[in-house]
Amino acid sequence: MTEEKSRAQQLMGDIAPKLAELTDEVLFGDVWARPGLSPRDRSLVTVAALVALNRTEQLRSHLRLGLQNGLTEQELVEAITQLAFYAGWPCGVAAVGVLRDVTRGDEPGEDR
Q: Which domains are seen in the chain, by residue range?
């Protein structure tokens, strides 16, 4: 019986197996599991960082994860609106487009 590959293993395990392993074990296995913040709050912080850095490819999966972790679409819209003033208008506008795709199911292919 074959073990199902993690998302990190699917995306980069063939070319960067150590990075995929660190993603699974350290980032999601340790950092995301720490008790200091709830998964919902970690999602909000991560989304804010990705919006501010205009990392739209990673933003897709973290918006989805944020919704799974209890953030609402309206809360994400409000966070993005707030960030547009601090991180830059283009970052905010790009993030709203990604959120629209994620919440409407109009995403292009697989995310990263």
A: 1-34 (no CATH), 38-104 (1.20.1290.10)
